From TrEMBL, chain A:
A Pfam family this chain is assigned to: Ribosomal_L20
A GO cellular component entry from the record: ribonucleoprotein complex
Transmembrane segments: none
Family: Belongs to the bacterial ribosomal protein bL20 family.
KW Ribosomal protein (keyword) present: yes
UniProt KW keywords: Ribonucleoprotein, Ribosomal protein
Gene3D superfamilies attached to this UniProt entry: 6.10.160.10, Ribosomal protein L20 (1.10.1900.20)
GO terms assigned for molecular function: rRNA binding; structural constituent of ribosome
GO terms classed as biological process: translation
Top-rank taxon: Eukaryota
NCBIfam families linked to this entry: rplT_bact
Protein's recorded name: Large ribosomal subunit protein bL20m
From TrEMBL, chain B:
Chain's gene name: Mrpl21
Identification of the protein by name: Large ribosomal subunit protein bL21m
Top-level taxonomic group: Eukaryota
Pfam short name (any one): Ribosomal_L21p
InterPro entries assigned to the protein according to its UniProt record, in alphabetical order: bL21-like (IPR028909), bL21-like_sf (IPR036164)
SUPFAM superfamilies named among the record's database cross-references: L21p-like
GO MF, any single term: structural constituent of ribosome
Gene Ontology CC: one annotated term: mitochondrial large ribosomal subunit
Residue ranges of coiled coil: none
Organism the protein comes from: Poecile atricapillus
Family listed: Belongs to the bacterial ribosomal protein bL21 family.
Length: 149, 156
């Protein structure tokens, strides 16, 4: 006889449910509480964990840059320079070191960092001298300064 | 004329050394001394700052470096890194503006392994909107070992 559809008592049931559940639980094994054991709670936690890790990968770059800047600021203050002065003068002397390397040098190579700070300080003084001009009084009648002797 | 609070500027007066004299001192004393040290070989471990794979690395001998991209060189190839920004030892540092000369420094590295990173999960999820996209990323990585950093006494 011809059978067009399966009988009603014939159902297709999952035989690999265990492995599908383990795929999610393996990411939750180090969590705290029942969400490391119970699938229903683990699914939600694992999903939030993945979303948070994707967003954190973008923010890690911002966070690390702020950390490097803090470290460079602390090291340059030890040598008597503030961070904006240090970085701007270093850039003006055409030294293209980035903040990651400067922070590493400040930690592991203190003598090199001291020489970089001295370089920046010297460039700063030269910049001030170039901006101040000769130091004489300005010409012109109304801007002449009267001396009382 | 009596000195008031406005006779001299409030910032400290700084006298910079004479440029001609300083150039003479630099050429005679500093360069000769450093050249002498380099040719005598009286430096311990050298470190260098190298610009490679669009990143700056602070490296020494026998260092391992991992780049997050593909390098078109087979495993076991020797590579010379040319963009060196800084070289230092215990007593002296050579700072490049911005790069040091190729006849001054030589940094050699070997490609050790080319693998993929661990599978990172990229998940985007909006709650209550039935929106979920999952992507597994395994980006290629290359591991290099820095063999040697050499400097030659050709300062001027």
């Amino acid at each position: 006889m011809v059978v067009l559809s399966a009988a009603r008592w014939l159902r297709s049931r999952l035989s690999e449910r265990f492995w599908r559940v383990q795929e999610v639980l393996k990411y939750a094994r180090h969590f705290r509480g029942r969400k490391n054991r119970c699938y229903k709670l683990a699914v939600r936690s694992v999903r939030r964990a993945f979303v948070r890790s994707t967003k954190a990968r973008r923010e890690k770059k911002r966070f690390l840059r702020a950390l490097w800047i803090t470290r460079i600021e602390a090291a340059s203050l030890e040598h008597g320079l503030k961070y904006p002065a240090f970085i701007s003068n270093l850039v003006k002397t055409q030294v293209e070191l980035n903040r990651k390397v400067l922070a590493d040098l400040a930690i592991y190579e203190p003598k090199t960092f001291k020489s970089l700070a001295a370089l920046a300080q010297r460039r700063r003084q030269e910049g001030f001298l170039a901006a101040l001009g000769d130091g004489k009084e300005p010409e012109g009648i109304f801007s002449r300064i009267v001396h009382h002797h | 004329v009596a000195k008031t609070s406005l006779t001299s500027p409030p910032w400290p007066e700084v006298k910079l050394p004479d440029p001609v004299e300083e150039a003479k001192y630099h050429a005679a004393e500093v360069v000769r001394k450093v050249n002498g040290l380099i040719s005598a070989g009286q430096y311990g471990r050298l470190f260098a700052v190298v610009h490679f794979a669009s990143k700056q690395w602070k490296i020494t001998n026998e260092d391992l470096i991992m780049m997050d991209n593909v390098l078109e060189a087979e495993c076991g190839d020797r590579i010379r890194m040319e963009k060196v920004l800084l070289v230092g030892a215990d007593d002296f540092t050579l700072i490049g503006r911005p790069l040091l000369g190729k006849d001054l420094v030589r940094v050699e590295a070997t490609v050790i392994e080319k693998t993929e990173s661990w599978p990172k999960v990229n998940l985007r999820f909006w709650r209550r909107h039935n929106y979920q996209r999952k992507k597994i990323i395994a980006n290629p990585q290359t591991v290099l070992r820095i063999n040697t950093i050499e400097i030659y006494p050709c300062l001027s």
